[in-house]
Amino acid sequence: MADESVSARRFARESMAVLDCLTKSAHDDVVRAAELIADCVRADGVIQAFGTGHSQATVLEIAGRAGGLVPTNRLSIADLVLYGGEPPSALDDPLLERRAGVAARIYELAAPRPQDLFVVISNSGVNNVVVEMALHAKEHGHHLLAITSLAHTRAVPAGHPSGRKLADLADVVLDNAAPRGDALLELPGGGAVCALSTLTGVLLVQMAVAEASALLLAAGERPPVYVSANVPGGFEGNLELEKRYAGRIRRTAS
User: Fold this and answer.
1) What is the pLDDT of residue 2?
2) Most-buried pick from 73, 115, 222, 241 (CB within 10 A)?
3) pLDDT given for residue 1 in this prediction
């Protein structure tokens, strides 16, 4: 018989309880995040989303998806190869995200404009490249929205030489409510299983997009939103919307 302390039923129950709580506890911060997003769209800006590891799942929730905003860009360590001329073997380095200068190069390749909003996602909020990207964005005058676990980031030391963490640098922080280490269900004898941050990160992103869309509609502006490419006319309509941001957003086969 399966251990009842670790089961599908328990993960569903506990994760749904966190999601339910988050819809209330994060409301004010979501409104503030939505204001940053709406202001960016109004100013003809692009939302530049960055994360590493599994935080890229939440980046994908922001950039280039059906029902999402068109002026969005996915930044990635892979950009060093795709757009920066580095050999594919550069990505074999497991410590690449800890190396100084990586975020600055990714920023440079994106060529953002001053009105662009940066959204940086990291459960721990302490990895070198994440903090470096946040610092670089702030130094260049961008507003910064962070999605991170405050429980985790407060429980671990800073990894960047500055001693700063992602949450220290953001204009608005959306706390994903994930526990230290991300995994929700404790295992007998130590350790834990079943990560939470992707579920909560997706919820926060979609709440913020909904609220930003409401702000734009209230101002008489139609949000530039993607239609699924798998409905008639969707692909062609999306191409028309993307023309406004030509050369500023990347859409690859991935």
Assistant:
1) 52
2) 73
3) 41
Q: How many CA atoms lie within 13 A of 65 on its CB side?
A: 14
Q: Give dist(CA 248, CA 20) in Å, integer.
A: 36
Distance CA 67, CA 77 (A): 25
> For residue 63, what are its two tokens?
């950039």
pLDDT, tens digit (0-9, with 9 covering 90-100), for 139-162: 999 999 999 999 999 999 998 889
Enter the tokens of residue 90. Answer: 């550069």
Cβ neighbourhood burial of 131 (10 Å; 0-12, 13-18, 19+):
buried
Listed in sequence order, the residues at least 6 apart from 243 whose beta carbon sits closer than 8 Å to its beta carbon are none
Q: What is the DSSP string of 124-191?
A: SS--HHHHHHHHHHHHTT--EEEEE-HHHHTTS---STT---HHHH-SEEEE--PPTTSEEEEPTTS-
H helices of 26-95, in order, are 27-42, 56-62, 79-82
Helix, strand, or coil (residue 24): helix
Q: Spell out, as residue ranges, where the chain has pLDDT lower than 50.
A: 1
What is the reported pLDDT for 160? 87
Contact assessment for residue 149 and residue 197, using Cβ atoms and an 8 Å cutoff? yes
Contact yes or no for 106/77 (Cβ under 8 A): yes
Instruction: Name the helix (H) or strand (E) containing 218.
Output: helix 197-218
CA–CA separation, 134 and 146 (whole Å): 9
| Residue count of the chain | 254
φ, ψ of residue 71 to 5 degrees: the values are -75, 70
Place of tokens 């834990």: 192
